[in-house]
Amino acid sequence: MATEVYLVRHGETMFNQLDKVQGWCDSPLTIKGIDDLKSTAQALSQVHFDNMYSSDLKRAIDTVHLMKDANQVSEIGKIKKLPEFREVFFGSFEGDDIATTWEQVSEATGIGPEDDVTKIINQVGIYEFREATKKADPRHLAENKRELDERMERAVSVLGELTKNEQRVLIVSHGDFIKTLAIKYWNQSDGLHDIVFPNNGSVTRGILHDNGRFEIVDYNVNAEDM
């Protein structure tokens, strides 16, 4: 049985608002973030889910509970938290200023100082960008392409085991992780260049097939378009 997967990006957080790098580090949802999520929750309130899951980071957990509480047609028990669906890990850059971080990563690619992440990725490609992030990280802890690719595949595998008897599920994850899933599993991505970053509270829909194959079929859909 194939499983329809609704991937929701968490709401806006304090670090999003302050333009700080936010991967495995966490910060609380803002008032705007909560208000925006209410629109997403309302748009999904009549969609039946067999289960809901979440990344194990608090901003995602808070988001999934908003989805759960607003849903009128699903009976969801305890939320299972999945660390495999955490945000991309940025190592020593966690909590730093975003523009300064991208300048350092850009220098590591050899293209010189550039603080626009989209321009960097479109010049060197997403894979080289991941390698440069690890290279620029003083402790070399940031996830590179291989590490992130292995985690994405593990995430899909874990979800496949959990949802064998579930037709439709919702899982709250994170912007860069969802975007990287789309680069890998969405047929409208060429797998090399950047694609638009998903909005806070947006929904990306995937299909997890019986044979374990995963594909993205809708990307970055906002509440008003559902």
TrEMBL record:
Catalytic residue positions: H10, E87
Pfam family, one: His_Phos_1
SUPFAM superfamilies assigned: Phosphoglycerate mutase-like
Keywords on record: Hydrolase
Biological processes per GO annotation: negative regulation of glycolytic process; regulation of pentose-phosphate shunt
InterPro entries membership: His_Pase_superF_clade-1, His_PPase_superfam, PG/BPGM_mutase_AS, Phosphoglycerate_Mutase
Keyword Hydrolase: yes
GO CC annotation: cytosol
Electron transport recorded as keyword: no
Positions annotated to bind substrate: R9, H10, G11, E12, T13, M14, F15, N16, R59
GO molecular function, one term: fructose-2,6-bisphosphate 2-phosphatase activity
PANTHER family according to UniProt: FRUCTOSE-2,6-BISPHOSPHATASE TIGAR
Full protein name: Phosphoglycerate mutase
